[in-house]
Design goal:
- This protein has 320 residues and is an alpha/beta fold.
- It folds into 2 domains: 4-116, Four Helix Bundle (Hemerythrin (Met), subunit A), CATH 1.20.120; 123-316, Translation initiation factor eif-2b, domain 2 (Rossmann fold, 3-Layer(aba) Sandwich).
- It is 39% helix and 16% strand.
- It is built from 9 helices and 14 strands.
- A 7-stranded mixed beta sheet has the order 6-5-4-7-10-13-14.
- α1 runs antiparallel to α2, α2 runs antiparallel to α3 (68-79) and α2 packs parallel to α4 (86-96).
- It starts with a strand and ends in an 8-residue tail after the last strand.
- The structure holds 5-S-methyl-1-O-phosphono-5-thio-D-ribulose.
- The site of 5-S-methyl-1-O-phosphono-5-thio-D-ribulose has 18 residues, from α2 and β9.
Length: 320
């Protein structure tokens, strides 16, 4: 299963807004359709957004081949469709750098980004599984937040890929997936993926995480990132920071798994990152709401960051 791919001249995605009730594939033919899919979270998660940005530029390169002004405008719209995950703008810009070479070169660059994310997932799964065994002991129950599986990448995923690998090694007791209000990426998407993989899981309301940790029911927290800053601050789905505080208080590891394409050393710290505000409608129909979609977890609450190339032990003072 590929969450996102280029198929016969269009971008195909699994529509994540209707899972798990329906498994629907959307074909996106225009930049407008692609941007709408990104903004509605039909395609979501940092690595998948990088691939979406890249394929978006490939679409634009074909549609606006004879109109450089329209092409430039399309690239900018894609880059800024969502602000927080660094992968989106990065994927779009890297692909746009090939525009002078023509649409086929642009598509080849986009496919290369897709393939890099697939390879990165595999690498993180092995490296992360080794680290969890080292830090959390044999057969832990791991708590995860949001969705970091194949749906957020292209195939395997980041933190969820690690959990899948631990399950294959028979080194995982089970997973607690926090439901991830308001859009329920945990309750809808993570549970759907874990169910397909045969990994035992239970869903918890977001606010239960720290209490379950305090009761000794969690061996470690493992989740993804939308951006990792130069100082190690981790920007991820709202609720991540609360889980990091719970983990620190309970004395259990807090492990972040993300590809190098999510590491943003040009941004010194989380305070500089635009946190997307997704408005009231997702939270409640009957009053105003404040709805930040992500938060910043300070680096000193993070035990380790696992990427496709390295393990950075922040608890030992290692630097990015
Ligand atoms: O708003 P979303 O669903 O795109 O947010 C996704 C997350 O916060 C994920 O945890 C993050 O992208 C990591 S996926 C490797």
């Amino acid at each position: 299963m590929r969450t996102i791919d280029w198929v016969d001249g269009a971008v195909e995605i699994i529509d994540q807004t209707v899972l798990p009730a329906e498994e629907r594939v959307l074909r996106l033919h225009t930049v407008g359709e692609l941007i709408a899919a990104i903004q509605s979270l039909a395609v979501r998660g940092a690595p998948a957004l990088g691939v979406a940005g890249a394929f978006g530029v490939a679409l634009a390169a074909r549609i606006h081949a004879d109109d450089p002004v329209a092409l430039d405008r399309a690239v900018r719209r894609i880059e800024s469709a969502r602000p927080t995950a660094v992968n989106l703008a990065r994927g779009a810009r890297r692909t746009a750098a090939r525009l002078p070479l023509g649409p086929d070169a642009v598509l080849a660059a986009a496919c290369a980004i897709r393939d890099e994310e697939i390879a990165a997932s595999t690498s993180m799964a092995y490296r992360g599984a080794d680290l969890v065994v080292e830090l959390c002991g044999p057969r832990p129950t791991m708590l995860t937040h949001c969705n970091t599986g194949g749906l957020c990448a292209v195939t395997v995923g980041t933190a969820l890929g690690v959990l899948g690998e631990l399950h294959r090694r028979e080194q995982l007791a089970g997973v607690i997936a926090s439901e991830t209000r308001p859009l329920l990426q945990g309750a809808r998407l993570t549970s759907w993926e874990l169910g397909r993989w045969g990994v035992p899981y239970r869903v918890a309301v977001d606010s239960a995480g720290p209490f379950l940790m305090a009761r000794g029911e969690v061996g470690g927290v493992i989740l993804g990132a939308d951006r990792i800053c130069a100082n190690g601050d981790v920007i991820n789905k709202i609720g991540t920071y609360a889980h990091a505080l719970g983990a620190r208080r309970a004395g259990i590891p807090f492990i972040v798994v993300a590809p190098e394409s999510t590491v943003d050393t040009d941004t010194p710290a989380g305070v500089h990152v635009e946190i997307e505000d997704r408005g009231s409608a997702e939270v409640t129909g009957w009053s105003e709401a404040v709805n930040p979609a992500f938060d910043v977890t300070p680096y000193d609450l993070v035990t380790a960051i696992v990427t496709d190339r390295r393990v950075i032990r922040l608890d030992r003072g290692e630097k990015l």
